[in-house]
Design brief:
By secondary structure, this protein is an all-alpha fold. The protein contains 9 helices and 2 strands, in the order H-H-E-E-H-H-H-H-H-H-H. The two termini are 29 Å apart.
C-alpha cells in the first residue's frame, strides 16, 4: 500500500520549512526521496515528513545539515521508507511528529488530511500502540490547546469527535 502522498506545500506547512529549503535538502543531502508523480510533482509520504522533521530538530539543535543528513542516512537502510521514528532515537519511537501532523489537520477541520495521516499510521503500527501513543495523547493535547485558548470550540469539537470515533471503533483494546 503506497498510502497518502503530500505536496511540497503541505510538507512546508507541516514542518515550518520553506519549499526551497526542502528541495535543497533533497538535492544536496539526499534528505528525502519523494515519489515523482506523472506530472513531475513531488509526492511525500508520512515517513518522508518524519525524516524532514527529524533533520529539522537536529539543525535546530545546532548540528550542520550535512552532518545530520549523514547521520540519518547511516541509520536507514538504502531505499528504505520505513518509519524513521522507529530507527533513530535508540530504538525509541518519537511520536511527536505523527501527533503534530494529526493535530494540524484537525485544527484546520481537514478531516480528509487527518484521515490520511491516521491511515498511514494504522498501516505502520499496531492498533494498541496507535491508540496509546497517538490517539489518546492527541485527544489530551487538543483539550489542553482549547483550555489555553489556542483553538476555538469548533476546532476542539471537530478534532475531539474525529479522535473519539477512532478510539471507539477500536475500543476492543481498552478492554484487554
Amino acid at each position: 500500500m503506497l498510502g497518502a502522498l503530500y505536496t511540497i506545500k503541505e510538507v512546508s506547512d507541516l514542518t515550518g520549512l520553506s519549499t526551497q529549503l526542502i528541495r535543497k535538502w533533497e538535492k544536496r543531502y539526499g534528505a528525502v526521496n519523494p515519489r515523482r508523480l506523472p506530472n513531475g510533482y513531488r509526492g511525500y509520504t508520512v515517513q518522508d515528513i518524519e525524516m524532514i522533521r527529524w533533520l529539522k530538530r537536529r539543525v535546530d539543535d545546532g548540528k550542520p545539515i550535512g552532518m545530520a543528513a549523514m547521520e540519518l542516512n547511516s541509520r536507514l537502510r538504502p531505499g528504505s521508507h520505513a518509519s524513521i521514528a522507529e530507527r533513530t532515537i535508540g530504538g525509541e519511537i518519537d511520536w511527536q511528529g505523527p501527533i503534530g501532523m494529526l493535530l494540524h489537520y484537525l485544527e484546520q477541520a481537514d478531516l480528509c488530511g487527518a484521515e490520511k495521516v491516521y491511515q498511514q499510521l494504522e498501516a505502520l503500527h499496531s492498533m494498541e500502540l496507535l491508540l496509546a501513543q497517538v490517539i489518546k495523547p492527541a485527544l489530551l493535547e487538543l483539550g489542553e490547546r482549547f483550555e489555553r485558548g489556542e483553538i476555538n470550540e469548533s476546532q476542539e469539537n471537530v478534532g475531539s469527535q474525529f479522535i473519539r470515533d477512532k478510539w471507539q471503533a477500536n475500543s476492543i483494546y481498552e478492554h484487554k
